Amino acid sequence: MFGVIIYFVFASLSYYFIFDPTYLSHPKFLAAQIRKEISLTMQSLPVIALLTVPWFLAEVRGYSMLYLEPEKYGWWYMFLQFPLFLVFTDCLIYLIHRGLHHPLLYKRLHKPHHRWIVPTPYAAFAFHPFDGYAQVHPATSLSTNLHLWKCIN
Question: Is 112 in contact with 24 (CB distance < 8 Å)?
């Protein structure tokens, strides 16, 4: 529910304060597009959330390589872990996005993402649930996967 609240708050704020309303008259803007973007998002968010829960549980239970103990790992790690994490996960998300353009995956999973030629802020999560999970997965599970790999080896 919190994700849905955040989605509506920030999409609405962006729509009313940042989005250019002249785009609504663009010839490629679909009929009832905002309703369709919201509808697809409401179908996708619960599935994405359910698939993501195990990774968050593992992380909050300590199976993560993001640490907040500078005396144990050093101040350099304390400050560098966050930008390195963001750069690395963004690279993974980009590569996953490119992979979703493969002909075997595009029509089934990724095409809804490109349906919005003139997107509004409500299109932020308007894609197939497995497409959304694939692109959210690196950010939610990378540090947990690294920790589990470290424990195994």
Answer: no
Cα–Cα distance between 3 and 8 in angstroms, integer? Answer: 9
Structure tokens at 22: 């002249």
Cα–Cα distance for residue pair 111/101, rounded to 1 Å:
9
Domain ranges for the chain, please list them.
2-152
Please tell me the distance from the alpha carbon of residue 151 to that of residue 132, in angstroms, as a whole number: 29
* CB distance 65 to 149 below 8 Å: no
Chain centre distance of CA 74:
30
Query: What's the CA dihedral at 7, 9, 15, 19 to 10 degrees?
Result: -80
DSSP state letter for 101:
T
Residue that the structure tokens 């590569």 belong to: 95
| pTM exceeds cut of 0.85 | no
Convert the pLDDT of each residue in 64-76 to its tens digit.
766 667 788 788 8
Question: How far does Cα 123 stand from its chain's mean position?
Answer: 12
Alpha-helix residue ranges (DSSP H) falling in 1-128: 2-17, 33-60, 70-73, 75-99, 103-105, 111-114
User: Mind listing the pLDDT tens digit for each residue in 27-49?
Assistant: 999 999 999 999 999 999 999 88
Alpha-carbon gap, residue 7 to 110, rounded angstroms: 20
